[in-house]
């Protein structure tokens, strides 16, 4: 079976590794263009591109796929590459571009998506983050036949994964990536029956905005704790202490009460309901580390309010 693969981040790269390990022929990979990254903002290839090049697979990096859109020349070149690859199926995982109908229709067996949620819950761009933020007890991976809608296609295989009490997006991501790799191999080796998604329980996982990092101390301690785990490794939690920026990475429930944002004991901050103990912090230009270490020499004063 000839499999064209479309994906960009590490989540997708794990699936590509699984397909290659299972012996599938992958003549072409589509991935996002190289982006500036790191302190030097040098162009960096995506995780998928790096894996593809290491395996000797041809790579296409169109900026868009609409034949009549802004990047029509890129789309036309990508179409020629796809036609030449003669795919039986396209596997898509966190690619980052919307596939127009001509792409969906091109592979003989259509396009399959590896989506990191239990559809129809958390359709959209950030299903792992939103599941943790919402306090879901479990999530998973759905192998879906792609259509023109946003994660609305028929479902084939579903794998479930409990969300642990200490899970961050980073830790849950790694387990779901491995699960997605196993499921897509199974779906190609033993094609399942695809059934329409239920009409009940639809929610949307909107893309994470950096502005969401600002901590609202009026929220409950439980909400703030979940939000910080959901936003690790990006964008983390942000507040101010004494007029200076302070990054908050990890907290734990604590005893006590006070005005939201008020420091009520060393490293303990009152919330709208309950309180949290600051466990891991980061000052501008510094490294993230234990709160006691980061605050050494400049501790938070009992009574001051964070975020003011």
UniProtKB/TrEMBL annotation:
Its EC number is 2.1.2.9. GO terms for molecular function: methionyl-tRNA formyltransferase activity. Keywords: Protein biosynthesis, Transferase. (6S)-5,6,7,8-tetrahydrofolate binds at residues 117-120. Residues 1-188 form the Formyl transferase N-terminal domain. Pfam families: Formyl_trans_C, Formyl_trans_N. Residues 207-298 form the Formyl transferase C-terminal domain. It is an enzyme of class 2 (transferase). Residues 284-308 are annotated as: Disordered. It catalyses: L-methionyl-tRNA(fMet) + (6R)-10-formyltetrahydrofolate = N-formyl-L-methionyl-tRNA(fMet) + (6S)-5,6,7,8-tetrahydrofolate + H(+). HAMAP family: Formyl_trans. PANTHER family: METHIONYL-TRNA FORMYLTRANSFERASE, METHIONYL-TRNA FORMYLTRANSFERASE, MITOCHONDRIAL. Belongs to the Fmt family. Attaches a formyl group to the free amino group of methionyl-tRNA(fMet). The formyl group appears to play a dual role in the initiator identity of N-formylmethionyl-tRNA by promoting its recognition by IF2 and preventing the misappropriation of this tRNA by the elongation apparatus. NCBIfam families: fmt. This is Methionyl-tRNA formyltransferase. It comes from Roseateles paludis.
């Amino acid at each position: 079976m000839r499999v064209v693969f479309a994906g960009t981040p590490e989540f997708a790269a794990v699936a590509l590794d699984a397909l290659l390990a299972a012996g599938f022929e992958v003549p072409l990979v589509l991935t996002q263009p190289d982006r500036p990254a790191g302190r030097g903002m040098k162009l960096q290839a995506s995780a998928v591109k790096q894996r593809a090049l290491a395996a000797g697979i041809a790579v296409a990096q169109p900026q868009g796929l609409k034949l009549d859109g802004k990047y029509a020349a890129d789309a036309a070149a990508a179409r020629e590459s796809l036609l030449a690859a003669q795919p039986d199926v396209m596997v898509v995982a966190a690619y980052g571009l919307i596939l127009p109908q001509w792409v969906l229709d091109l592979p003989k067996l259509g396009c399959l998506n590896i989506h990191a949620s239990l559809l129809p819950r958390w359709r959209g761009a950030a299903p792992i983050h939103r599941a943790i933020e919402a306090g879901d007890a479990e999530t998973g991976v759905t192998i879906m036949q792609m259509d023109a809608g946003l994660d609305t296609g028929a479902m084939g295989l579903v794998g479930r994964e409990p969300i642990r009490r200490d899970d961050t997006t980073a830790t849950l991501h790694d387990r779901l990536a491995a699960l997605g790799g196993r499921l897509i191999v199974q779906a190609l080796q033993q094609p399942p029956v695809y059934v329409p998604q239920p009409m009940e329980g639809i929610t949307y996982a909107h893309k994470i905005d950096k502005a969401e990092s600002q901590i609202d101390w009026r929220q409950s301690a439980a909400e703030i704790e979940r939000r910080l785990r959901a936003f690790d490794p990006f964008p983390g939690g942000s507040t101010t202490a004494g007029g200076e920026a302070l990054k908050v990475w990890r907290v734990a429930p604590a005893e006590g009460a006070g005005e939201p944002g008020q420091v009520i004991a060393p490293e303990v901050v009152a919330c709208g309901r309950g309180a949290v103990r600051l466990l891991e912090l980061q000052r501008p230009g510094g490294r993230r580390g234990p709160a006691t270490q980061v605050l050494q020499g400049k501790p938070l004063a009992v009574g001051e309010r964070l975020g003011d």
